[in-house]
Amino acid sequence: MLRLVAIALLLANAVYFAWTQGFLAGLGLAPVQQSEPERLNAQIEPGTLRLLNGPRAEAEDVAQATDATPSSPEVAPATSCWQASGFTAPQADALRAALASTGLNEALWQFSEAKSSGRWIVYMGRYNDEQMAKKKGELRELKIEFREVNLPSAGPGLALGTFSSEESVQQALKDVARKGVRTARAALERPESVSWTLRLPAITDEQRTSIESLGESLAGKKLQPCE
Hints:
Strand order of the largest sheet: 2-7-1-8
Number of strands: 8
Radius of gyration: 52 Å
Shape: rod-shaped
Strand content: 15-25%
Helix content: 25-40%
Structural class: alpha+beta
């Protein structure tokens, strides 16, 4: 009896195994296939899926971050301000032409005009050494300040004051006359003048070297840092 039961269990297991493996499908005996084709059809480009925390994802993130990093901008060369002053009008014109011939952008250089008013003095002279010493002694007794001058038009003498206009020096003459000075007169120590200054607000060292090589066009003037 037990033998029959054992044989029946073996046969049942064999049939079940054959059924689960689909060996009995030809007889219409096969397990129902579990599938969801509608979900598979709904997937969009399943081949592009990737694990968010996988090694490949991390490598791609690093590559993207590297590509997104902006490249370093080019560093502009350093510039500084330079100038040269004391040019006469003809010298300034010659230098303008020389600068234009170098191809330097006109926005990088500029000329400015500076007018210097005449300088007047209350003058006593012309004196030789003996006369000079005597007049100095007299002025010290009168407590009048002075300085030695040597005017091209009048020679060695003494200046009792310096003034920017003829009107001012005429008033000064009246003042020293009241103190006892009778031989002083107004004299022009320096006439009114006009000069030009070249200013280079922002040039590179290379551009400065190019300008300094202009030679005679600079009329002996040297570039100096802007004040």
